[in-house]
Amino acid sequence: MGREHLIKPVLDHPYPTIQYGKGVFLYDEQGKAYLDASSGAVTAGIGHGVQDIIDAMMEQASKVSFVYRSQFTSEPAEKLAKKLSDLAPGGDYWAFFVNSGSEATETAMKIAIQHWQEKGRLGKNKVISRRMSYHGITMGALSMSGHVLRRRRFIPLLEDFPVVAPAYCYRCPFKMNAASCKLACADDLETAIKRIGAEHIAAFIAEPVVGAAGGAIVPPAGYFKKIKEICERYEILFIADEVMTGIARTGEMFGMQHEGVEPDLIALGKGLSAGYTPMAATLVKDHVMAPILQGSKSIMAGHTYSANPQSAAISLAVLDYALKHQLAQSARSMGAYLLAKLRQIADGIEIIGDVRGRGLLLALEFVQDRDYKTMFPPVEGITSRIIDKAFQKGLLVYPAAGAVDGAGDAIIVAPPLVITEAEVDQLVQLLEEAIREVADELTRESEG
Ligand code: PMP
């Protein structure tokens, strides 16, 4: 083979070439099938190769694919903005379209800062995030991310934004238990605000369910209500990063709907286009836009491809599909079925320390000792060993942080929301085999 040209995630790793996808399966050029139990990067929410989306794509392409947003608007972009506002918690949102989740969170940050500037509050320009969080790979998004591994190389270039405790009950940062903790993790936000001064803080950002930085970590009941109440009391905007949770993934169209909280800004990505095109959005509540409408009347953000009609038409078709096929309902019922099955296999495999998640955003956390919740040393690379083993068997699962910043080794199981019971059974069987084989190897290694 000649020299390579495409930069892949791991440069010396041999990646199979995928030929096509259908439903929850991908097929490589050797004809091997992969059950996509991670929806790629928790993206392909409606499954692969859906004809309705291909039709919508062709139809829009036959009209016009691109117009520049400084010159024209388009019907698909207008319709998509309205539909998202209708679906989002409490309604009354504006939409700003971008191309990736990172841009969506970074744009949310910029709009939050601009909101305060328009009100003459020039000092409010820090964003608080949480340890064990991931909001994206661009510099602004990374500045707000508590993901040690992804930040490490760029630390000198990042804003030194404050971070507060994660709402991680399995390993409570305050060594409390959920029944009696009175939400100390939410209070940690108030402590930070008092230390830094609300006059310096524009926004607080959090994922409704933590994804890549911890593995489907669901907060304790009431956490986000308390967070929102603290944000309002100190005049701090609340940004919900719904890039992974948005569009039915957790069993509601938006993850925040489980919490009964209306965020001031929402970042969407991944499931919004379900992988059919690069598309993401920042939703902004009316009251956040109000001073901008009265002031400079323009948002200082955006990209060449923002709000292009092709991506908007595709995302609109994805939303229609999700609503027509009641995929939020499927995420709830199939999520409950899959969670119960994962709990069953966990009973018999000692290295599974925790099984958790919401809807079809689920995760398993691995431990050396279940009683003490001892993490594996990072050098053991447990997360990647399990992922590789599953991959060999034709099962795709997604890595969470993996013992890098207070999080243990974990994998995310998040198949397309169209998965059937029979496909869940197949998924669980393959996953159980993969985990058992790694667990057996570990036993042999420790004995040898
Ligand atoms: N926020 C969250 C919660 C995410 O999970 C991700 C992607 N894993 C991002 C932001 C960044 O999205 P993208 O990779 O599309 O830039």
UniProtKB/TrEMBL annotation:
This is Aspartate aminotransferase family protein. Belongs to the class-III pyridoxal-phosphate-dependent aminotransferase family. The keyword Transferase applies. Residues 417-444 form a coiled coil. It holds the Pfam family Aminotran_3. CDD domains: OAT_like (cd00610). One of its GO terms (molecular function) is transaminase activity. The keyword Transferase applies. Keywords: Aminotransferase, Coiled coil, Pyridoxal phosphate, Transferase. Gene3D superfamilies: Aspartate Aminotransferase, domain 1, Type I PLP-dependent aspartate aminotransferase-like (Major domain).
